[in-house]
Design brief:
The chain is mainly α. Among the domains are: 75 residues, Leucine-rich Repeat Variant; 79 residues, no CATH class. The chain is built from 17 helices and no strands.
């Protein structure tokens, strides 16, 4: 009996000691199996895209994220397609940006792009204006914007005509002249009369106003004659007036040349400008062959000789005879 009791005690002791050990072992095995099963599932999913790309020319990369802005994607695709359908835009852009080509050719390309007026053409022009493109090419862009049908052109012209680069600003002044609307006249007038405007831009604005057919442009020029004292600006104003049809300015020039308050040098400049005016200026200039001022007489004779170089010298009265 004593031995049987001892054997049962030993069994109970083994059970108490070994049972927790077995339980821990079983738990460890379960945890190990679970941990092994997770990477296998992940591996399975990571292999599937690669398998789907087999036999195609697309690299085995994850599928792209669905586009959550389909309308924007469509607009971008349409713009890219439109650009591809405009070979002339691409050709002119290439010429405009090619530093190895003559400036004249590049300037013509810039003006051509402006006339096309599409958003793609405008994007090419804006890009050229913000990089190291030659100033004279940028000036051609500004000039061309005056004939651009793009809705952004007027605002861009306003930015360029008041910019720091005077070469570009002068091109923008010519661009406003090409537009020739009320806004163009007002803008050019403000530039002409402002002492803060660089001299080169003021003189260009005067010439530009001469190219605008609006009567209000001529009114600004005649007003400038009496209000602006700067000799360089005055000369450009006279040249601007002479660019207009002579039938519109004949009365102004008659009063100007007959005024005792106008210096002889200014009258000579006026006669030289009238020589290039569009209209019948010969009969008008002939009146000053007998002017009391010898400088005016000499300028009138020189202008008439230029206009009709085939006229024999005897056909025009000599200065000695007029004195």
């Amino acid at each position: 009996m004593k031995s049987n009791v001892s054997g049962d005690s030993r069994k109970r002791i083994r059970t108490k000691v070994l049972l927790p050990v077995w339980l821990l072992l079983v738990a460890a095995i379960i945890a190990f199996v679970f941990a092994r099963s997770r990477p296998k599932a992940a591996d399975k999913h990571s292999i599937e895209p690669a398998n789907s790309a087999v036999g195609s020319n697309i690299s085995s990369t994850p599928a792209p994220t669905p586009n959550i802005f389909p309308s924007l994607h469509s607009a971008e695709s349409a713009r890219a397609s439109e650009f591809e359908s405009e070979p002339e835009t691409a050709r002119l852009r290439s010429i405009m940006l090619d530093d190895s080509l003559p400036l004249r050719q590049r300037r013509e390309a810039a003006r051509g792009l402006a006339k096309i007026g599409t958003d793609e053409a405008m994007a090419a022009l804006k890009s050229a204006l913000t990089n190291n493109t030659a100033p004279f090419v940028k000036a051609a862009i500004a000039e061309g914007l005056g004939q651009s049908p793009n809705a952004e052109a007027p605002e861009l012209l306003h930015q360029l005509v008041t910019g720091k680069d005077q070469t570009v600003a002068r091109g923008a002044a010519r661009g406003f002249a090409a537009r020739g609307d009320t806004d163009a006249v007002n803008t050019l007038g403000k530039l002409l009369f402002s002492d803060q405007t660089p001299l080169s831009v003021r003189t260009e604005s005067a010439l530009a106003l001469g190219d605008v057919s609006s009567p209000s442009a001529q009114d600004l020029l005649t007003k400038a004659i009496s209000q602006i004292q700067d000799d360089d600006v005055q000369e450009s104003v006279i040249d601007g007036l002479a660019r207009r049809p002579f039938s519109d300015t004949e009365e102004f020039f008659r009063n100007y040349l007959n005024s005792p308050d106008v210096p002889s040098a200014s009258k000579v400049l006026a006669i030289e400008s009238i020589r290039d005016a569009d209209g019948d200026v010969e009969a008008f200039l002939s009146n000053y062959l007998n002017d009391a001022n010898p400088e005016v007489r000499a300028a009138a004779k020189k202008a008439l000789d230029f206009l009709d170089p085939d006229t024999p010298p005897a056909a025009a009265p000599s200065l000695s005879a007029q004195q």
